[in-house]
Amino acid sequence: MQPKWSTACRDWERRIVAQRSLIPFSPLFPDEAEHALAVFKSLRVVDLPGQPTFGEVCEPWVFDFVAAIFGANDPETGNQLISEFFLLISKKNTKSTIAAGIMLTALIINWRHEEELLILAPTIEVAQNSYKPAAAMVRVDDELSELLHVQDHRRTITHRVTKAALKVVAADTDTVSGKKSGRILIDELWVFGKRPNADAMLREATGGLVSRPEGFVIYLSTQSDQPPSGVFKAKLDYARDVRDGRVEDNRFLPVIYEFPRKMVDRDEHLDPANFYVSNPNLGRSVRQDWLEAELKKELASGPETRNVFLAKHLNIEIGQNLMANRWPGADFWPKRKLEGLTLEHLLSVSEVCVVGIDGGGLDDLFGLSIIGRHRETRDWLVWSHAWCHEGVLERRKSVASKLRDFERDGDLTIVKDELGDISQIIEIIDDIKQRGLLASVAVDPAGLGEMIEALDEIGVTQEAGNLIGAPQGYAMMNAIKTAERKLANGTMKHDGSALMAWCVGNLKIEPTATAIRATKQNAGDAKIDPVMAMFDAVTIMSRNPEAKAFDVNAWIASYA
């Protein structure tokens, strides 16, 4: 009879605090799980004093994970009923060593001749982190040395009987094209998330699963040292959806060691008594005293290194880049997200709107921010969007994966037509104008010739008083200060897009003797155009404008 199970773990918050298993079901086939566990537990961890076995030193969570993987294989059909596994865990919780043990176990119990098993790492250094302990496990055991052949120069371990081989491949040097691996482990997925071609590469690497019903793929990672992006963000978001029961996928098992949101909001992750939540190996491979000492140092340092420490050692997701010379409003930005704030909602509750526009060339973003003043509370509501041309993905490869993420979120539109962005922006502005809500459009005058001409066609001109060149550089100081004050006191709220969080984090404030100005943290790739568009709109909204009456006859005449 086919077993029934669910990989959702809706009570994970209670489980993780109580140090209970995050795998909500027993192995589907207990005998298969026990057989694999017997092999896994017998492997020796060579770099520990006394060279103990996994069975002697591992915490129960490790055995639960191993049992879930190998216990999902139906011995009658050979089918792997759970074929994808995702483990997110803090640094130094023996992730790579466990990876070596799992894949070595798979090699030993594998029945298919000439099979290829693969550990795919983003760099040679990460590849060595898995290969070296696997090779050492073989060499320290006489029985395994007779069964398995180790070839260091190829980072390959071959089964002498079945001729199956475990290969450890570094994606930065070795090709994955044409791989027919049936069992695959992908290490440090967060690094792959930074690469624009990672999705295609991983699809190529895992293509062999199509003809391997007994196959599986395991994704292992720590948190990213920057806001998650690319394939890592996609897989992490999906894993959380499956875990929380929002998506039903019983072939995908997520195991995520992270703090519940409420604990992070209350800063309980900074309490050393709670370090165990994201460090299930605390007291073994992770030292409590070291974490406490390092946390004290980081709390006294700047946000750059502090965020990386929290991400790597406590698995806290970085929401936005917070540099030492960041815009002060960035500290309040995450708190002012208003759920359900769409453009349509903003327009339906606002008494007046100001549109801000800031755009660069064909290798930049075209930013649009709309600020609406709520007709009852008079709070400022901000909705933003951006456009870019396809060529940006080639010219700015370091952020290409992020831009694709924003496109999937619906916050960025990637266009092919050189005027496609302008036509869409004009359509939005025209709609606001027809509703009788438009006070004015505030623009950075530089380089907007085509936009100015397009605005003229819908009756938005300097002569009509509804097109205003917003002051730039140091003259924008009042808008920057106004925005940060309103964020601080809660009277300015936004739609919470990941695009704007990224842009806000990229913003750098440069002080002078008498003023400040906003620039980018890094030239070229760190985009801020939608935020600058917001400041353009703030310039006008701070003057308490009223919507200009909509002259329907003039509008009809403009199209005649």
Automatic annotation (TrEMBL):
It comes from the Bacteria. Residues 66-196 form the Terminase large subunit-like ATPase domain. Pfam families: TerL_ATPase (PF03354), TerL_nuclease (PF20441). Gene3D superfamilies: P-loop containing nucleotide triphosphate hydrolases (3.40.50.300). InterPro entries: P-loop_NTPase, TerL_ATPase, TerL_nuclease, Terminase_largesu-like. One of its GO terms (molecular function) is endonuclease activity. Transmembrane segments: none annotated. Residues 258-540 form the Terminase large subunit-like endonuclease domain. PANTHER family: PROTEIN YMFN, PTHR41287. This is Terminase.
